[in-house]
Write a structure and sequence with these properties.
- The structure is a single chain.
- By secondary structure, the protein is mostly helical.
- It has eight helices and two strands; from the N terminus they run αααααββααα.
- The chain has helices spanning about 5-25, 35-45, 60-80, 95-110, 115-125, 140-160, 165-175, 180-210; strands spanning about 125-130, 135.
- It has a two-stranded antiparallel ribbon.
- Helix 1 (about 5-25) packs parallel to helix 3, helix 2 (about 35-45) runs antiparallel to helix 3 and helix 2 runs antiparallel to helix 6 (about 140-160).
- The model is unreliable at about 125-140 and about 200-210 (pLDDT under 50).
């Protein structure tokens, strides 16, 4: 296992635990950006779509489940919990994160692993109309693999900017408690290590192709 991936997983897990500790110990999510939490939930769901189709290892499967469930539970707490949602600062947390989602998805469509013009054309005609008016799916296996690479790239790009709403909220509020500061620190460190891991994989793929 790549040491940088392990370090990234552990530090991101620590950041989630720190955030959950803050939320449940203080019954408050003040200083936490819901927009950032929604972005991370989308990152993990998009990245781990293969959870039910591919098995790599027990560790890999457990970490996928932990990241998806924990991120979704944090979003649920901030939006639905009767006490915690009262402390959420909607006035300050106004970052338009849907622009980040749209931009990252468009970028993922254009730039992803082993992209070819043929794949783009195939994606545009995934659904074709028959002469009798019914709809059929063409090239299922190829399309599935291609879309998997698109969503993986989307998750990578989105993760790179997911922390922006949190940073903007901290700048606006100007009041950061210790647990929130620790959460942001571990989140940033996990991004640095995981980003290094992704770059290493990209270089390996490049040298293998050349």
């Amino acid at each position: 296992m790549n040491v940088f991936r392990l370090a990234g997983d552990i530090t991101h897990l620590i950041s989630i635990l720190v955030l959950l500790l803050k939320i449940y110990a203080t019954k408050s999510c003040s200083g936490i950006s819901l927009k950032t939490q929604e972005l991370y939930a989308l990152v993990f769901v998009a990245r781990y779509l293969d959870l039910v189709t591919d098995f790599i290892s027990v560790y890999n499967t457990i970490m996928k489940i932990v990241f998806i469930v924990s991120s979704l539970s944090i979003v649920w707490c901030m939006k639905m919990h009767p006490f915690i949602k009262r402390s959420y600062d909607k006035v300050q947390d106004t970052f338009r994160h849907y622009f980040l989602i749209l931009g990252c998805f468009v970028l993922a469509l254009l730039i992803h692993e082993k992209f070819t013009i043929q794949e783009l054309l195939l994606m545009l005609v995934v659904v074709s109309a028959r002469s009798d008016g019914t709809v059929s799916w063409t090239g299922d296996n190829t399309n599935t693999l291609m879309l998997g690479r698109v969503f993986w790239a989307f998750s990578i790009y989105l993760e790179a900017v997911a922390i922006l709403p949190q940073l903007v909220l901290l700048q606006r509020s100007g009041n950061v408690d210790n647990l929130t500061a620790q959460y942001v620190f571990f989140l940033g460190y996990s991004f640095i290590t995981s980003d290094f891991h992704v770059n290493c994989l990209s270089m390996q793929n490049f040298y293998h192709r050349t």
